[in-house]
Amino acid sequence: MDKTPFEYIYTLLVKDLNTNKTVYEDQNWNYSYINSEDGKLPYIVVNNTIFKKSGKYELIIQPKLNFVNEKKLSQYSTSKIIKVEWKKEYHLTEILVAVLSTTTLLLLIGFPLYRNWGRRKILKEKFQKRLAETELKVIRSQLNPHFLFNSLASIQTLVNTNEIEQANKYISHFSKLTRSILDNQNYNTVQTEINLLTDYLEMEKLRDIFHFQINISENLDREVEIPSMLLQPLLENAITHGLSTLENGKILVQFGRSNDDLIISIEDNGKGFDNQKDFQGFGLKLTKERISLLNQIHKETPIHITIDSNNTGTKIFIHFKNWLT
Amino acid sequence: MIKSIIIDDEIANIKNLNVLLNKYCPEITIVNTSDNIYDAEKIIRADKPDLIFLDIRLKEKTAFDLLPNIQDILFEVIFVTAYDEYGIQAIKFASLDYILKPINIKELQTAVAKAVLKIKSNQQNSQIQFLIDQLQPAQPSRKIALPMQSEIRYVNIDEIIRCKADNTYTTFHLTNETIIISKSLKEYTDLLTPYGFIRTHQSHLINTKYIKSWLKEDGGTILLENGKKIPVSRQKRDLVKNILFK
Q1: Which residue of A266, B85, B145, B233 sits 20 to 30 Å from the alpha carbon of B123, by its own alpha carbon?
Q2: Predicted structure pTM score
Q3: Do B10 and A154 touch (CB under 8 A)?
């Protein structure tokens, strides 16, 4: 800007280029040493509040002469364009609005995705459950053919030796058992199970000589449902691997409760088996498989089996955690 | 009189068989019985039976634990079992007789009649020894007993090129001869399928080892290495192709 030796009165105009409006006008010039080499320079102090928004502003210094024409005026004027940038300060309300809108957006987009993912997870769990149930069915329907045909052979003996009454009794035991297996029920009440196990043990007693007893605690409800025929393979195991070579074989089955847990135990005085070895009889393997599948379905009521076997007998405990809640 | 013993781990089964034999097989005389392999061994030596009714499962032992302990097998055996179990396949390969529990009276009579015939003709019983050999764990090659009219032929299954059904007979085409056996092709199909044989047709069972090529004529025919063409029936075509082209 040229120095003016004359007593011109210059005016400072600030124009917002965004709106093309003059936002400020001032002619209170001060003189001071801003730059020592250049001597005193005129200046105007402008409060920055005139720049309300970020954007481009034009600073114009022009003579305050109303009579000169536009062309002449621009000849003695100077201008500079400056860029004003406000760093935005956020207020609490603004933050709140921003947070709320972002959350809403996330919810709008995310929830269906989340729900879909959740649904898929449920579907997957459902599928696994169904798979486990199917496997269970397959295992349960595996009626030991040895038992089946040997039972019929035992009945044939009764018929051929004219023990008609006995033959009738065993045909009845046998049909109750086969009916239950064909029905393929997932669960039976404790009472039904006890009846079936009795039918089963009676059939086995036709072939092997042993004693058996089934007890139930008074504090256990006989109507409680338990997985059907879970104990049968274990009893079969006890008879064929434990008692078969014994003179006075005994089997004791007990149904009891401890707080909310159902506890079933099977004890025999057979010669036992090595628990560490892999071969534990087909029946035990089958039961363990079934329990692991049941545990996949009922995660909140896990079933645990423990086996304690030595050469004087075998004790099997099946612990149904929280089964009675 | 056919001197016989019954070996079964269940007294009830011994009783039952005894009753049935008395009633339906009068030529059989039961001289002794046993419910375990230890006593069984003793009574076989002492009584020298002509025929043994032998249950396969004997408590924790089996009939196959008993047989190798007997030096001179001068008797016939009818195996008795409740269900297809360990060893039944070997019994079939040895072409020995077995009956199922509960006992069917007709089957019992047929098995007894065959045994009596063998006993009366004084044939040497090589089948039991064959069975014992076959049950040894290290078997170099699978053999099968083929009962002919006058002898039992033990044939390596690799030597069987094909079998052809002729009514109730089966003709075995071996690498160097042809023999006729009075058993159905179905029986041999069941036995030999696990050893690389395929039933290509109602009346043909062939050893895949001897197949040369698949001919497209008549919708599918098999050419054997010896130049013989074997028909493939419509419903077996996919099965045969699957096996050949996999």
Answers
A1: B85
A2: 0.66
A3: yes
